[in-house]
Design goal:
The chain is α+β, with helices and mostly antiparallel strands. The chain has two domains: 155 residues, Triger factor/SurA peptide-binding fold; 106 residues, Chitinase A, domain 3 (Roll), CATH 3.10.50.40. It is 52% helix and 13% strand. The protein is built from eleven helices and seven strands. The strands form two sheets. A four-stranded antiparallel sheet has the order 4-3-6-5. Strands 2-1-7 form a three-stranded antiparallel sheet. A hairpin with a 3-residue loop joins strand 5 and strand 6. It is globular. The two termini are 27 Å apart. The relative contact order is 0.15.
Length: 330
């Protein structure tokens, strides 16, 4: 699971990329949401959205309507705050040395030391280095929370390893890699037949739009409940064995550029776009195939458990969105 986002974030802050979106310099700040005991203000949402637009622009992703982007960014801020509160509640503490180590890695990625990183960021926007430091500390705490709540609870049986090995040995195309884009229209917990039908209809409508030329990344940002929504739904390059089992057949049978019909799972309805397909570096069976199987199966289970866990954290937190214009459509 790929959690940290700061090397990309810092790299974007070091560029001169700015979007054409106009933000008011002076706003009468107001509370727009409450998460547990924390208030999220409109200025915080605008600042976070500004960072997201830089990231999306750097990746060449067309922006959705600003009001829709605000909704998705606010949802991510709510999830982040709910996780931070849970980390505080169970006593997770991050040392300054850990924060400096992560900042050092970010600085090195950009060919400078921490002081150089600080000067560059502050020259672009006052207070940006402090915000980055606080964000790094928060992300480290959330990473540790996820490790305790998700990663350490993953269990893989020997039977699952055996089945994986047999499948890999018998799959002649297992060395292929797939560049996958993903969109999830989520189902509520314990959905009724009427709720399932409504979500299915919504997924079908979105799919028809995509078939008619709607931009997939924009649709993912606007509609997807997946944790990669603000990356335009881009899951990156995946080996065939890394694909979720219920999506594997669909992905491997797609042509490049093709979009799948909605696929139902316990989480909701998934729409997949295959951006690319290529051969892996090594088609031979590795000597440590059982260890590889264990790693892949843990990743597959971890990704599924992570999305379920995120939903539970969100559901169990007290969330009150005070500004209806920022509330995401259900």
């Amino acid at each position: 699971m790929n959690y940290p986002r700061f090397i990309t974030f810092a790299g974007l802050l070091l560029t001169s990329l700015f979007t054409s979106i106009s933000y008011a310099d002076e706003l009468l700040d107001r509370s727009i949401a409450i998460v547990n005991k924390t208030v999220i203000t409109e200025s915080e949402l605008i600042a976070e959205t500004r960072d997201v637009t830089r990231q999306l622009s750097a990746k060449g992703i067309n922006l959705p309507p600003l009001n829709e982007l605000y909704k998705q960014v606010l949802e991510r801020m709510i999830l982040q705050q709910a996780q931070k509160d849970l980390a505080d509640q169970i006593g997770i503490r991050i040392r300054d040395e850990e924060v400096n180590q992560r900042l050092g890695a970010i600085a090195q990625q950009n060919n400078m030391d921490i002081e150089g990183l600080r000067q560059r960021l502050e020259s672009q926007e006052a207070g940006s280095f402090i915000r980055l430091r606080d964000s790094v500390k928060e992300e480290l705490a959330i990473d540790e929370l996820r490790n305790q709540e998700v990663v350490q609870r993953i269990r893989v049986t020997q039977e699952e390893v055996k089945n994986f090995v047999n499948r890999k040995l018998g799959n002649k195309t297992d060395n292929l890699r797939y560049h996958v884009q993903h969109l999830l229209i989520a189902l509520p917990d314990s959905p009724s037949p009427a709720q399932i039908a409504a979500v299915r209809d919504k997924a079908q409508t979105i799919w028809q739009g995509l078939k008619n030329g709607d931009d997939f990344a924009q649709a993912a940002i606007r509609y997807s409940a997946d944790s990669k929504a603000l990356d335009g739904g881009d899951l990156g390059w995946l080996d065939a064995s890394e694909l979720p089992t219920f999506l594997e057949e669909t992905v491997t049978n797609l042509a490049e550029g093709e979009i799948s019909a909605p696929i139902q799972s316990s989480l909701g309805f998934h729409i997949i776009k295959l951006l690319g397909k290529e051969k892996g570096n090594d088609a031979t069976i590795p000597n440590d195939i059982e260890q590889q199987a264990m790693r892949v199966l843990r990743t597959q289970k971890g990704n599924n458990l992570y999305e379920q866990w995120l939903r539970r954290v969100r559901d169990e937190a007290y969330v009150n969105i005070l500004a209806p214009e920022y509330k995401r459509d259900e």
